[in-house]
Amino acid sequence: PAEENFGGKVSMAEAGVFDNVDVALMVHPGTKNGVGGRSNALYPLKFEFFGKNAHACRPSEGASALDAAVMSFVQINLLRQFVAPHTYIHGVISDGGKAANVIPAYASLDYYFRAPNFAYAKEVAQKAEKIAESIAMANGTTVETSVYECPYEDTVINYKLAELLTEKYQELGLTDIEPVDEVATGSTDVGAVSYKCPTIQGYIKIAEDWVQGHSKEMADATISPAGKAGLIKAAQGIALVALQLLEEPETFAEVQKEQTETLSKLLG
């Protein structure tokens, strides 16, 4: 609950909570059954523009922070064409002034930059910073940037864990199980955990019809009969995976071997 934005698992990973953990298993509610997969890294960046107030009838005496924000917003959107596949740029004008007849001395933009790996998400964010800096200089304002929320790592897939969870879901009578998702769109703080130990974030269906995630409708679904049934299935699924790993050291060794090899490729 209330797990968005602040990255609780990131703080736990940085504090060493998962350093001696063998495997991390979790399931996320949704409108499908699945074994999870990749997630995008996320780099959140706030742009704050500072200008000079003036009355709208004498705009030449001011410097519009809002103009700088709007021009930056447009130019950053144009950057979308020139980024790698599966890279996403989301932004809003979080502050655009308080009165229409006053040239705003302050304006701000909040952005998320998502990409298949953290280094590239940060690289795209830095390109956006250069855009904002050049526009601010051109219109007589200044800009400051800051990381305003918790950045997220991408998620490392462990195919052996995905195979095990698929088997357990099938044993529990689930048939509509989606395979590993190779192409990421969303982001999660589970990514930080996946760089510390073998990790899986599966999905369990708790609504028959499609429901938007993180919505009032999804909250309602969690306490519906389907939601309660899904909770039990999810708990049973990951418990059975854990049991097999405890009973079969050779299977656990496969999971660990894959993790080591994958991280070696990713981190060099």
Number of domains: 2
CATH class descriptor name of the largest domain? Alpha Beta
Number of helices: 8
CATH fold descriptor of the largest domain: Aminopeptidase
Under CATH, the homologous superfamily of the largest domain reads: Zn peptidases
Oligomer designation: single chain
Please identify the structural class as seen in this structure.
Answer: alpha/beta
For the record, the CATH architecture of the largest domain stands as: 3-Layer(aba) Sandwich
Q: Please report the total strand number as a whole number.
A: 10
Which strand-content bin applies to the residues?
Answer: 15-25%
Distance between the termini: 36 Å
Report Rg. 23 Å
H/E element order: HEEEEHEEEHEHEHEHHH
Principal-axes shape call: elongated
Low-confidence stretches: none
Helix content: 40-55%
Q: Roughly what is the average pLDDT, rounded to an integer?
A: 95
Q: Strand order within the widest sheet?
A: 5-7-3-8
Largest sheet: 4 strands, antiparallel
